[in-house]
Specification:
The complex is a heterodimer of chains A (439) and B (204). By secondary structure, chain A is mainly beta. Chain A has four helices and 30 strands. In chain A, strand 24 and strand 25 form a beta hairpin. Classes of the chains: A mainly beta (439), B alpha+beta (204). Strand 13 (242-247) of chain A pairs antiparallel with strand 1 of chain B, so a sheet runs across the interface.
Chain lengths: 439, 204
């Protein structure tokens, strides 16, 4: 895993170009990602300096710092400080020599992000430096080049590297979200960046479309959509925009999940007369029947190695989460607390999130696949449903109606800290799916 | 006197069945509208229709709500014993009466057995009729689980009808899960109305 990240970083270095000035990061661990709860680091992100001679696009000055600030806020590791509290003189620069760090320590900033940019026509240049306010050391510095339209993307990218510098892993800022939205009056599939920006409507079927799931590589998406005959499972090629029917068997074709190899899916069919889970290939051919029980079996989610599958069954009388071992067909019940446990989602870091209710108010919990270490993620804030994990397993997304009647997508750290709303459209936003490399 | 009563009765039948049939027909039309071009082979572009669907949806909701209203008229009609239009009347009753379920349950409650028996008799008396049972759930729980639960609810009713001797191939099923609530509230009154099987005649 580490090597992959390092390689990816090396690629980033090549792509983005020059590292200017050697950075002197010591072995100090700023963000301990293994800690059960974290203290947020106070960070100051003043407006970016316009370094251009002709001052093109002065509005970017505050916009770029806002994107960076929003990223660092959503990461859950930082507390971005209020710009109104900044006392630094406007003549200060963005390099170490031109910064009076006392201006920042006085307002209790521990980290300082300084940025500058230059626009020449459609060309966009940005540089960002991260300083430790206490010692005055530079921890990170990078210059990036792109087109004006890519400015948001480039800030996300630099933000990812800042997270990497401080924690050893990349941030989630270039990941993407898919979800069901109702703003047209129909349930359609939408995609957006992880922070809710760049919203796009993927389907316009004017019927009911549910359960979007990105493929592991992010180039395809599956979803269930109603036709006259009932539910049909479709695969949407996100690069070409083409749509293929995967399963339209008589009865239900719902709630499909990708196996992590990206070549197989599990879904619920009723061809036997009862809702059971089947393994199919991506052309829709049945490979194996995975569950065989009189009860309802739905909502599969695979373990990172693809050898186990969590699912929901009411075989005990109420919906509960079970785990099937595909190597020996053993089924174990995972959840015992709460009368109604659904929507299991298995993370890359081997935690299972699910929605649980004992009084019809739903909340998100996570649990270890062996049934130990149950932890509550949401509490006393509306209904909270449909959890899904960020691709790296460090964040959790879910839909909640805590802000009123409608449901919106929220993200939080895996431990439930820093719950933040990321969608603001009309109607409901439901059933999120999170992709590492959305296409 | 008798004649005029008969005529009056017929008018009531005609009106109520027209209403029911037309509201059903409208629902069918909406479903048709929702249908997009089928996607046979792989990698066929789906045509995107640019319409303002908001109004359509609102109308649908209003119409679906309106469907509850004629029940009283149906009740009235039930008292009459006229022969002409009996089929239309019984068809209207077949479609007009839903059966309801307990939360997270799909078994047929005893109080709905007589309704299902009546539906079974109707299907036996008119062997050319084909029907669809639509399973529905309240909003609580996940969409996915509720789709399965709705399927089980329609399966229960289908099983009841086939046990009475109705051929299984005359009965189609569809589950809408929690996607088509008739009552939009967030309380037991609304939920109770939404946990139901609807019965629709698809061919007479």
């Amino acid at each position: 895993m580490r090597t992959i990240f390092r390689m990816r970083l090396w690629v980033l270095v090549l792509l983005i170009g020059i590292i200017f000035e050697a950075t002197d990061v010591e072995a100090r661990l700023y963000i301990d990602i293994t800690a059960p709860s974290m203290r947020k680091i106070p960070v100051a992100i003043p407006d970016f300096k316009d370094l251009g001679k002709r001052s093109e696009h002065p509005e970017l000055s505050s916009r770029l710092s806002e994107i960076m600030s929003n990223d660092l806020d959503l990461s859950g590791y930082f507390k971005p400080l209020d710009k109104d509290s900044f006392i630094e003189s406007p003549d200060s620069g963005i390099t170490r020599d031109s910064i009076n760090f006392r201006d920042w320590s006085v307002i209790r900033a521990e980290l300082l992000v300084k940025g500058g940019y230059e626009c020449i026509g459609q060309q966009f240049k940005v540089e960002v430096r991260l300083f430790d306010v206490f010692s005055g050391r530079k921890l990170y510095g990078r210059r990036a080049l792109g087109s004006l339209g890519e400015s948001r993307y480039l800030i996300h990218r630099l933000g990812n590297e800042i997270i990497h510098t401080l924690s050893g892993h990349l941030g989630p800022f270039l990941t993407g979200m898919a979800f069901v939205g109702t703003s047209t009056g129909h349930k359609e599939i939408y995609t957006s960046d992880y922070d809710g920006h760049n919203l796009e409507q993927v389907t316009s079927y004017k019927t009911i479309t549910l359960s979007p799931r990105w493929s592991p590589s992010g180039d395809k998406m599956i979803y269930t959509s109603f036709r006259n005959s009932g539910t049909v499972l479709f695969m949407h090629d996100m690069i070409r925009g083409s749509v293929t029917k995967i399963s339209d068997r008589k009865g239900l074709n719902i709630a499909a999940a990708w196996r992590p190899n990206g070549e197989e899916l599990a879904l619920t069919l009723t061809i036997s007369g009862n809702p059971d889970i089947y393994l199919i290939d991506i052309t829709g051919r049945i490979l194996k029947r995975l569950t065989k029980h009189w009860g309802i079996d739905v909502s599969p989610s695979f373990s990172p190695d693809g050898e186990k599958m969590a699912f929901v069954s009411n075989r005990s009388g109420s919906p509960q989460v079970y785990v099937l071992d595909l190597t020996n067909n053993q089924v174990e019940r995972l959840t015992f607390e709460g009368v109604y446990n659904t929507s299991p989602a298995w993370s890359r870091l081997d935690r299972i999130a699910f929605a649980s209710s004992s009084d019809y108010r739903f909340d998100i919990y996570t649990i270890s696949p062996d049934g130990k270490d149950l932890r509550r993620v949401t509490q006393d804030r509306g209904h909270n449903e449909s959890p899904c994990w960020s691709p790296d397993g460090r964040y959790i997304a879910f839909s909640s109606n805590r802000d009123g009647d409608n449901y919106h997508i929220f993200i939080a750290n895996a431990n439930g800290q820093n719950q933040r709303r990321v969608t603001f459209s009309d109607g409901d936003q439901l059933s999120p799916s999170w992709a590492e490399h959305p296409k | 006197m008798k004649k005029s009563l008969l005529i009056a009765t017929l008018v009531v039948f005609a009106c109520s069945s027209m209403f029911l049939l037309s509201s059903c027909a409208k629902r069918e039309v909406v479903v048709e509208e929702e249908e997009i071009t089928a996607v046979p082979g792989p990698e066929v572009e789906i045509t995107v229709e640019e319409e303002a669907p908001m109004e359509v949806e609102e109308e649908v909701e209003r119409e679906e709500l309106a469907e509850i209203e004629p029940l009283e008229e149906v009740e009235l009609a039930k008292v009459e014993e006229a022969e002409p239009g009996e089929r239309a009347l019984r068809a209207a009753r077949f479609e007009g009466e839903s059966i309801y379920f307990d939360f997270d349950k799909s078994f047929i409650k005893p109080e709905y057995r007589s309704i299902l028996e009546e539906k079974g008799q109707f299907l036996k008396d008119y062997p050319d009729v084909r029907v669809r049972i639509e399973g529905n759930c309240d909003e609580r729980g996940t969409n996915e689980y509720n789709l399965a639960l709705g399927e089980r609810r329609s399966t229960s009713a289908k099983g009841f009808l086939t046990s009475l001797g109705v051929s299984a191939d005359r009965i189609e099923m569809i589950s809408y899960g929690e996607e088509r609530p008739l009552f939009l509230g967030h309380n037991e009154e609304a939920w109770g109305q939404n946990r139901r099987d609807d019965f629709v005649i698809i061919k007479e």
